[in-house]
Q: What sequence folds into this?
């Protein structure tokens, strides 16, 4: 076949006009008017990633105060839990501190650690949390960034607003046989504070168990319709200095870890020496050689 004699008709090709060519090119680029939206979206995405996942550690002291005079916070902190949250990992650690730990209380001297809040609040309203934070920092050597303070009666109201908390016991605890229980506010508070046949070390574990159960109830979608009532109960009975801009970051870390992933620890009986003061009070002398390795493990310093 003679290829040179084979010709393709010219009009079998469709010419492309200049306007059509420009249109094809424009389809492959972002229109100029969309660039601001694109850049803003990219910036917001980067800002959110930095906000939620940037390195950082936050130490928060949870304070539970006993029943106090009407319209007063002058009470001892019978519950003290030093909480540490590292959002990027994520890691959430709870370290319960015995209320009878004998330490140096700034401005007071040697005394139980739970009296720091009481003496400060009795001297100046509103100064209790700062005194408790300073006492923990001075004795444990850990920075305490914020506090959350709750009255025990308020804790009961929060549990009731949630419709109670579910606990699953694998061994006899606080007067309950092994099994699953739904505790209302009064029973949950009694469970957390119960020392029948046990001691303060078991009580601290029970308190953490109720705290984790409460977090589990809050994160369940089945209870989200209760959140408005829980919020009202929180406002009435809890005060804190954690800034509002930080709550979403801390909340996401808690959701990622889940109650089962929380590293719950206590100052154990092996880390203290029981003794009696000159006034006949039973207290616990801290053994820092045994406590410090735990602090390094949980707080990284």
A:
């Amino acid at each position: 076949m003679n290829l040179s004699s084979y010709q393709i008709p010219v009009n079998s090709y469709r010419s492309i006009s200049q306007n059509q060519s420009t249109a094809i090119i424009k389809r492959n680029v972002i229109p100029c008017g969309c660039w601001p939206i694109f850049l803003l979206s990219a910036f917001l995405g980067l800002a959110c990633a930095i906000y939620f996942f940037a390195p950082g550690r936050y130490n928060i002291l949870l304070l539970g105060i006993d029943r106090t005079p009407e319209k007063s916070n002058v009470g001892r902190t019978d519950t003290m839990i030093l909480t540490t949250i590292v959002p990027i990992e994520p890691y959430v650690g709870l370290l319960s501190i015995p209320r009878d730990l004998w330490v140096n209380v700034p401005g007071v001297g040697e005394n139980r650690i739970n009296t720091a809040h009481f003496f400060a609040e009795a001297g100046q309203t509103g100064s209790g949390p700062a005194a408790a934070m300073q006492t923990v920092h001075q004795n444990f050597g850990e920075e305490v960034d914020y506090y959350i303070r709750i009255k025990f009666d308020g804790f009961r109201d929060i549990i009731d607003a949630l419709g109670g908390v579910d606990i699953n016991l694998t061994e006899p605890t606080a007067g309950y046989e092994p099994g699953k229980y739904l505790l209302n506010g009064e029973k949950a508070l009694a469970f957390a504070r119960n020392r029948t046949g046990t001691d303060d070390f078991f009580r601290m574990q029970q308190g953490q168990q109720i705290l984790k159960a409460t977090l589990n109830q809050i994160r369940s979608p089945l209870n989200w319709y209760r959140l408005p009532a829980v919020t009202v109960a929180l406002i009435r009975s809890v005060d804190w200095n954690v800034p509002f801009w930080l709550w979403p970051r801390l909340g996401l870390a808690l959701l990622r870890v889940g109650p089962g992933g929380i590293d719950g620890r206590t100052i154990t009986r092996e880390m203290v020496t029981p003794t009696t003061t000159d006034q006949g009070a039973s207290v616990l002398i801290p053994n820092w050689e045994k406590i410090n390795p735990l602090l390094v493990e949980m707080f990284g310093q």
